[in-house]
Amino acid sequence: MAGLLSAEVKMLKSRRVQRLLSFALKPLLAALFVSLIFYLTRSSPPKKPIDPYPHLTKSLVIAATTSSNLTWLPGALASSHWTPHVYTTDSPNAALTVPVNKGNEAMVYLSYIIDNYDSLPDVVFFHHDHSQAWHQQFSSAYELTHLNPVSVLKHGYLSPRCLPGCENVIELSGDVAPVLDLKGASRDVQIASVLREFLRDEKIGMRLELPEKIAAPCCAQFAVSRDAIRARGHETWMGLRDWLIATELDSRSSGRVLEYTWHLWFGKEAVHCPAEERCLNDVYGVGNGSGS
Ligand SMILES: *[C@@H]1O[C@H](CO)[C@@H](O)[C@H](O)[C@H]1NC(C)=O
Ligand SMILES: *[C@@H]1O[C@H](CO)[C@@H](O)[C@H](O)[C@H]1NC(C)=O
Q1: What residues form the membrane-spanning segments (predicted)?
Q2: Whose alpha carbon is nearest atom 12 of ligand 1?
C-alpha cells in the first residue's frame, strides 16, 4: 500500500515537472519560431556598401540655410562614407552655424577649417546644399558615392567639376586697394587685394607675387586634404574670415572673392584647369585609367 502510494506520488511529481516544462518551453519555442519566420521573410534594408578606404577619415561640410532642401542627403550618406557637418547659416540655434551670416558658403568653409584645424580628417569635401545644379555634371549623391579620397590626398585639392578647358579666367591688372575699402572696386581689384593681403609663403611669411591670371572650375565645391588645409597657418584662415566678417562688400561679392581663389589658398597653380579625361579619372575613376 505504502509502495503504491509512493509510486503514485512519484508519477504525480514527474507529471508536474512535465507540465511545468511544457508551460515554460511552449512560449519559448513559439517565440523562436516566430523570430525565425520573421528573420527569413523580412525585407532586408539597403546595406551600406563596404568602405573601400576604411583607413581614411572623410568629412562632408555642407553650407545650408533653413530653406535648404536636403532630402537627397540621407540616402547619399547611407550609400557613401562621409561624416556630415551641415552648417545652417541663417539660424543661430542650429547645431552648426557661423559667427556672422556673410559671404555665403565661404563663411561656412572657413569656420569649419578654423574650428577643426587641430583635428581635421584626412579628407574634407566642401559642398553646397543642392542635389543638382547647373555646374554639376553629376548629382551630389553621385559625387559623394564616387569621389575618390585617395586622389584628394594625392592632389591636395580636387574639384568635382571636370571640364574640357578653363573657365572663369580672370586677369589681374595688379591694382590693389586696402582690403577693408573695396566697395566700388572692380572684381579683379577685390580679388587681387585679398590675395595681396593674405596669400603668403607660409614658411617665411613673405607676401607672394600676384598672379597675372587666375582660373579654376566654377562654383566653390571641392575636396581637399588635411595637408592642403594645414599648409596654411591657422592665422591665415582666421585672417580671411576676419576680412569676410569686417568687409563692406555684400555676401555675393565677398563670397565670390573666395569662390574664385579657393584653389590658390589650397596650393594649386593660379590657372588650374585639369584636363577633362584626367579629371574624370582622378575624381570618379571614370575612363580607362590612362589619367592616373
Ligand atoms: C526637395 O527635393 C526633392 C528632390 O531632391 C523633391 O522631390 C522635393 O519635392 C523637394 N521638396 C521641396 C519642398 O521642394
Ligand atoms: C584610353 O586611354 C588612351 C591613352 O592611354 C586614350 O588614347 C584613349 O582615348 C582612352 N580611351 C577611352 C575610352 O577613354
Answers
A1: 20-40
A2: 69
